């Protein structure tokens, strides 16, 4: 019986201590704002002041000096995430009494451009980045990401690329972005309404009919044969069109 009483008393004391510590933390005032930028981001779309401006509405909402009990952490996260170049945000307080804002940026894999007035009218999102998650987000005013240009009828009236065809295209663009040779070689990817791709190279007057964005590793290997074995013999101006869309074939015209 005594053991039970001591056990209950111990639980009560521990609970009281936890409550007291939590109460003290909430009654603390915010000493400052610490920003943790995305260390893995290839392109610096934000600096610390940019994030502080987002969290405080450019100084309108004065957070420093407020009691943590008055600060809506989830509300601040939602405020930061209104900037669509930010993929994830966590806001919390540290043991020193600071408000910590940690962000993860969007990862662009292509820059969407319009090639005609008609395309611009069809999709107001043209002129943004395509991200790894299939979103179309605005360009950054601070930094221009070095990614392949992407255009075509496929994007008419699309607000994201989360469909099966869209995911295939994103996988292709990710593979292109991660390969130093093809990232340097391909200037633009034109996507037709049926999802077939035409690649426009940085060097040469030819275009590459790539077909659907599937089996792209095999198709890239065929293109390497064209660039390493055929072009050096025939010359860069010999062909206007190269097709790797058919299995086990390279068609040069």
Rg for CA atoms: 27 Å
* Number of strand elements: 12
List the domain count as a whole number: 2
Helix percentage range: 25-40%
SS content category: alpha/beta
CATH fold name of the largest domain: Rossmann fold
What can be said about the biggest beta sheet? Answer: 9 strands, mixed
How widely separated are the two ends?
94 Å
What is the tally of helical segments?
Answer: 7
β-strand amount: 15-25%
The secondary-structure element order is HEHHEEEHEEEHHEEEHEE
CATH class of the largest domain: Alpha Beta
Uncertain stretches of 5 or more adjacent residues: 117-125
CATH architecture assignment name of the largest domain = 3-Layer(aba) Sandwich
Strand order of the largest sheet: 6-5-4-7-8-9-10-11-12
Please, what is the average pLDDT? Answer: 85
Gross geometry: elongated
